Structure formats: C-alpha cells, structure tokens
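[Automated response] Your request has been received and processed.

Submitted sequence:
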Amino acid sequence: MIEPATRPDRTGFAKWLAEPLVQFLLIGTTLFLISDWWADRQPVQLAEARIRESRLKMDSLLDASASPATRNLEADIRVISDELLYREALRRELDHGDPVVRQHLAQKLLILQEEIHLSGREPSAGELREIFSALAPQLGEPARVSFCQVYSRTGWREADSQDIQRKANGCPSGVGEAFALGSEFNDWSRAEVEARFGKVFSDALFAASDIGWIGPISSDFGFHLVRVDRRIAAQPARFEGYRVEALREWERRERDIARRKLLCELVQRDRPRAESQASEDLQRDVASAVQRMGC
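Generated structure:
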C-alpha cells in the first residue's frame, strides 16, 4: 500500500514569511522604496509664479541696456539654481540642527499665525478710541518752557539772589559760576529738562506758572536761579489726528494675542520640559519658564 505524500515541514524563515502581517510590512516597505525612487527621478517642476517674480526682480537689478532675453535668462538660471540647491540641502538634512534655520522657521510660523488671526478682522470705533485714550499722553505736544539760569555749585545767599533778580532785565552775563550745559534753553519739555537737570529741578520749573525769576532750584549739579521767559501750554492729542497710530497699536496688540495663543496651544499639546538627563535645577528652571508663559 502506497502512503500519501506528506508536505515537507516549513523552515522557520518560511513560516515567518507566511505571516500576513510580515507580508503587509514587506509590501508596504517595497512600495515606499519604489515611490521614493520614482519621486527622485521625476522632473523638478518650477512654479510659473516664481519664475515671473524672479524676472521682475531681475529687471530692477540688471542694467537697463541688457536685453529682455538676457534678463529673463539670468532670472531663470537663478530660480533653477535656488530650487535645486534647496532640494539637495533638504536631502542632506542641512536644515537639522541649524539655529539660523530654526529661528527663521519659528518667525515664519508666527507671522503666518498673525496673518491668519488678522484675516477679515477690523477694529471697531470703540476699540480704536480706547487705544487712543491710552496712547494720548504720549501723542500730544507736551508743555514747554524757555528759561535761562545762573549757576552756583554750593548755593546762593538770599541777598545775592535778590540783587541778581532786581538788576537783571534778561539773562545776566558774567554772573555765577560757569555751567557746562550753558545758560539759555529754548522751548524745552519736562522730559528734556529732567534728563539734563534731574527730576527735582524739572518738577519745580514746571510747577511754577509765572514768567520771571524763580529759585534757587536744586539740580543734579548744584543750585540755580532761573528766569522763565516763555511758557507754552501742552496741546492734547486729538483722535482724528492720530487714528493711524491707534490702528497700528491695535494691530500690534492683535499680533501679540495671536502669538501667545499659538504658543499656549503648543505648550498644552507638546508639554515641553528639559531632557531627563538634565540637572534638577535646570529641569526646575525650564518648568518654571513654561509656567510663566501663562498657559
């Protein structure tokens, strides 16, 4: 009696190949390699908009005597070169670990997010007026004063002070000590006076409302007899004259909101922290920085 033929035992490798999951992975890997190989051999297509933009730029760079054909040729070579070098740089992963590239991409993302946030948005009249109210103290024309001074490093005796004020119709010359900043000052604002003489001098000068002699007033340098010759009142800003500034400030604030919103979303999604090998102090500092981002 002839026994029926039996199937030979499969080797371990053959059994492994027979597994459906293994076959799926092998087919997927093969298709990926083929598609990658095929993509590398496809012609690089250059967008028409980029070519035309490059030609317009080249028109402004090259001498007007160059023919249109020459300018177009130079522009096209530039586009082709840039595209090929860019693609090759990506293949070699030159964008990895480059701080300049990282910063550029981060800035580009922020700008894109800002534009998306601002798209279709317009401030209301109430928003602009509220912003203008906050900016108004910096926008108007400040009060100004014209004055001259007689300087003493150590101070003035009352008799000498009264004598100078009685005799001088204008700013006296040859009286007092030499002063590095000079003796006459025309149409100075409070900020200008404070920057050069100090806050005590500035406050005293602008607190007085009269024309004529005041003082002695102390400064960062010593003591001054001051003759005020002219005062110009502050001119408050009007909304109609500063609407553009209010609009610019509104846009700046909205861009800031867009940036903070994006960063908060990324913090909550990615939960950044220092690597586990970092010191405890550094890990704590990074965690504190994440918290201070206000998300």
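Summary generated for your ticket: The chain is about 55% helix and 10% strand. The mean pLDDT is 80.
If you did not submit this request, please reply to this message.
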